[in-house]
Amino acid sequence: MKTNETLGQKQRRFGRMVAALLNKALEMGYEYTFGDAYRDTSLHGDFGQKRGYGAAKSLHKLKLAIDLNLFRDGKYLSSTEDHRPLGEWWESIGGTWGGRFNDGNHYSLEHNGCK
Q: With 70 as the cut, is the pLDDT of residue 81 above it?
């Protein structure tokens, strides 16, 4: 974990981490589509405000979270356990995996205590 990063620096680091995540997913034999990446605050409310679906302090609003839909052999893998190998790898490079809080397809970078 890096200290004294601005939000912009953290967003750019997250982008590089996501590129590695996508490559790792392919290496592990997964295919994927994207779920939520950025949640537009004009639709979902500012960070800390709940409007629509999702948490008020969703890191998607800060461009620090992505949801991935995993597939293997054309079959959608919907369970948290299906994401475990990739999620644990994500944690090993400094990310936060949603499988620890019942959101298995969520991959984020912690910011000010939010996951």
A: yes
Contacts of 3 (CB under 8 A, 6+ apart): none
Q: What is the DSSP string of 56-74?
A: TT-GGGGT-EEEEEEEETT
Q: What is the CB neighbour count within 10 angstroms for residue 89?
A: 17
Mean pLDDT of 97-108: 95
Per DSSP (E only), the strands in the chain are 31-34, 65-72, 75-77, 96-97, 106-108
The residue type of 96 is T
Neighbouring C-beta atoms of residue 15, cutoff 10 Å: 13
What are the extents of the domains in the chain? 7-32+63-108
User: How far is the C-alpha of 45 from the C-alpha of 56, rounded, in Å?
Assistant: 8
> What number of H helices and E strands is found in the chain?
3, 5
- 5-48 tens-digit pLDDT: 999 999 999 999 999 999 999 999 999 999 988 655 555 545 44
